[in-house]
Amino acid sequence: MPHDVVDLRSDTLTLPTPAMREAMARADVGDDVWEEDPTVQRLEGLAAGLMGKQAGLFVASGTMGNLVSVVAQTRPGQELVLDADSHIFNYEVAGSAVIGHVQTRPITTERGFLSPAQVAEAIRPRNIHVPATGLVCVENTHNRHGGTLCAPEEISAVAAVAHGAGVPVHLDGARLFNAAVALKRPARDFAADADSVTFCVSKGLAAPVGSVVCGTRDFIARARRLRKMLGGGMRQVGVLAAAGIVALEQMIDRLAEDHANARRLAGGVAALPRIRLDLARVQTNIVLFSVDRPGGVEELVAGSAARKIKIHAVGPASIRCVTHKDVDEADIDRALQAFAEITRAW
Ligand SMILES: *Cc1c(COP(=O)(O)O)cnc(C)c1O
């Protein structure tokens, strides 16, 4: 059955699969604040295994996962080093400042990834005037840079510099499995030298809700207290975790299809008039491009909507399309056909 609407706005719009619905209906549950939900514990164990960490913690969202990770590893008044386009700096409502009393130190990068030299330069010296560096954050794949990825070795090189200065590293891996599938590397390689890692089951992996934070047992114990403080201590939440288990067991390998569809889309979009798109940056499931025509973004968004294709403007001159399991190759061709019609007179 062809899809009525082609929704390219985000992979968060993916609907749960029939297997997820089934698993949710049948899930064994208990009170997870009492640590008695066997399905949550299975998901956390599975996640920790995939990340090569001692323990995991199921949280409501990637935002909550990042927040508990930052706050558990810093003290008030410390500084958080991150990329200026990072999700934590731009889209998490300043939670690290409000809840953690941590100052952010945004660094501008080419592709979204801090180099070891940039981290070395950003780490503060011991001096009575300056804040102490509390944490370095890395994001992979990188959302605002259009799904760009870095190799595990790049994360390890940054971690070596941070650890050399006694500073821990958090990996915001909301879409870490997209990087893992694209580079054909196990997810645990990316997390190997990170002290904490967060990934979402609610994006391309298609579960309805949730993220998992992984790290040492001691870190997870602190993160668990913080999750409770934030109101994230949920009760029979195995109903949700059950979908996350299906996500990890059945939905990782198929991300390769999303990447192929993104490349197909990008190839077509790059050939349109007045569009600027860097094909080298289309590395996973996000296609980011700019429109070099006043009002062109609005024309494309409205013209697409009229053809039942939803796309998302991410600035006055930029559009982001995200591929996912509810978009197939025929949908990509339909979107390209629509874009060609709308831009014909450009
Ligand atoms: C989506 C996203 C998050 C936050 O996840 P939510 O579940 O939407 O809160 C964090 N980091 C990155 C890189 C993301 O893309």
CATH top-level class of the largest domain: Alpha Beta
Distance between the termini: 33 Å
Q: Describe the main β-sheet briefly.
A: 7 strands, mixed
Give the SSE order as H and E letters. EHHEHEHHEHEHEHHEEHHHEEHEEEH
Average of per-residue pLDDT values: 97
> DSSP helix count?
14
Overall number of structural domains: 2
Topology:
Layout: E1 6-7, H1 18-26, H2 38-51, E2 55-59, H3 62-72, E3 79-83, H4 87-91, H5 95-98, E4 103-107, H6 116-122, E5 133-139, H7 152-164, E6 169-172, H8 176-183, H9 187-191, E7 196-200, E8 211-215, H10 217-229, H11 238-250, H12 255-270, E9 275-276, E10 286-291, H13 296-306, E11 309-310, E12 312-313, E13 318-322, H14 329-343
Parallel strand pairs: 1-11, 3-4, 3-5, 5-6, 6-7
Antiparallel strand pairs: 2-8, 7-8, 9-10, 10-13, 12-13
Helix pairs in contact: 1-11, 2-11, 3-10, 6-7, 12-14, 13-14
Your description of this structure?
Helix content is 42%, strand content 16%. Helix 7 (152-164) links the parallel strand 5 and strand 6 (169-172). The chain is an alpha/beta fold and 346 residues long. The chain has 2 domains: 6-13 and 254-343, Aspartate Aminotransferase, domain 1 (Alpha-Beta Complex); 18-250, 3-Layer(aba) Sandwich (Aspartate Aminotransferase, domain 2), CATH 3.40.640. The chain has helices at residues 18-26, 38-51, 62-72, 87-91, 95-98, 116-122, 152-164, 176-183, 187-191, 217-229, 238-250, 255-270, 296-306, 329-343; strands spanning 6-7, 55-59, 79-83, 103-107, 133-139, 169-172, 196-200, 211-215, 275-276, 286-291, 309-310, 312-313, 318-322. The site of pyridoxal-5'-phosphate has 13 residues, from helix 3. Pyridoxal-5'-phosphate (PLP) is lined by residues 61-63, 66, 87, 139, 143, 172, 174-175, 200, 202, 211.
